[in-house]
Amino acid sequence: MSRKEPIIAIDGPVGAGKSVAARELARALGFAYLNTGAMYRAVALAAREAGVSPDDPNVEERLASILRGIRIKFDGEKILLNGRDVTAKKDEPEIGDLASRFSALGSVRARMRELQRAAGADGGVVMEGRDIGTAIFPDAEFKFFLVADVKTRARRRFEELKKKGGTITEQEVLEQLVERDRRDSGRELAPLKRADDATEIDSTKLSIDAVVAAMKAKINPRINAAKDLKRA
Ligand code: DC
Predict the structure, then answer these.
(1) What separation in Å is there between the alpha carbon of 93 and the centre of ligand 1?
(2) How far apart are CA 143 and CA 198, in angstroms?
(3) Which residues of 179-192 are buried (b: 16+ CB within 10 A; e: fewer)?
(4) Distance 171 CA to ligand 1 centre (A)
(5) Is the shortest distance between the CB of 40 and ligand 1 below 6 Å?
(6) Using the 8-state DSSP alphabet, how is residue 198 labeled?
(7) What ranges do the domains of the chain cover?
(8) CA 175/CA 192 separation, integer angstroms
(9) 32-35 and 125-129 strand pairing
(10) Ligand 1 midpoint to CA 128 (Å)
(11) Does the first or last residue of the chain, that is N or C, have fewer Cβ atoms within 10 Å of its Cβ?
C-alpha cells in the first residue's frame, strides 16, 4: 500500500445505505469517516444564504469567493460551515436538491476534490459519496458501490426524514429521488457510476449489519495480510 493506511471508497445513489454503513465500518476499523454529500450540502447552504441560485447565468463567478473561503468541519455528528453549526439545516429536502444542482458545476467539484483529497491523503478513512472511487481516489485500496431498489430507497429516506420531523410524503420523496438519480448520473462531470473495480452490494434485502459484514469480508483479509507483511 502506498499510503500508511488504506482508503475505503463507498459510492452509490440516495438511500442505498451508504451513510449508516460507512459510519459503522469506520467505527469498526477505527478509521475516520467523511460524508462528502454533506460537504456539497454545506456549499448549497452557503450559496443559498448568499442569494446565489444554480440557475444564475453567472453562478460560478458568484460562487468563486464563497468557495475560496469555505470552511467545512465535522465534529462527531455535527457539521460546521464557516464555524457555524448547520447540522439541522443540511437535511432539508431543498438543500439535498440544491446540493445536487450545484454539484454539477466544475468549480464546485474542483474545490470539493481539493478538500476531499487533502482530508484523505494519509488514508485511514472511509469516504462516501458519488465519485470517490471514480474521481477523488481512483486508486483507493477498497471500493464499494451500494445500490438498492428505488422504492426501498425512497421508503428509507422517507422514514429518515419523518424521524427528523419532516412533513414530506413518501410519494414526494420517491419523485425527488428519481429526479436526483437522473441528475447525479446524467451530469457531465464525475457522474454517479460504479468504478470498474468496485464491489457492488445490493442492500435492498440486507440489514446494515449484513452490508457492513460484506464489506469487512473484503477488507479484513487484505488489511491483516498487510500487517503480517509489515511484522515479517
Ligand atoms: O449524499 P447526499 O444525498 O447528501 O448528497 C447530496 C448531493 O451532493 C447529491 O445529490 C449529489 C452531490 N454529491 C456529489 O455530486 N458527489 C459526491 N461525492 C457526494 C454528493
Answers:
(1) 13
(2) 5
(3) ebbebbeebeebeb
(4) 21
(5) yes
(6) P
(7) 12-203
(8) 18
(9) parallel
(10) 9
(11) C
Burial 142-163 (b: 16+ CB within 10 A, else e): bbbbbbbebebbbbbbbeebee
Q: Measured from the CA of 90, which atom of ligand 1 is nearest?
A: 4
Q: Which of 18, 40, 156, 176 to mutate to test the pocket of ligand 1 (most atoms within 8 A of CB)?
A: 40
- CB of 108 closer than 6 A to ligand 1? no
pTM greater than 0.85: yes
Calculate helix-pair angle for 150-163, 170-186, nearest 10 degrees: 120
88 alpha carbon – ligand 1 mean position (Å): 17
In Å, how far from its chain's centre is CA 30? 19
C-alpha cell at 1: 500500500
Q: Which fold has domain 12-203?
A: Rossmann fold (3.40.50)
Reduce the DSSP state of residue 17 to 3 states and report it: coil
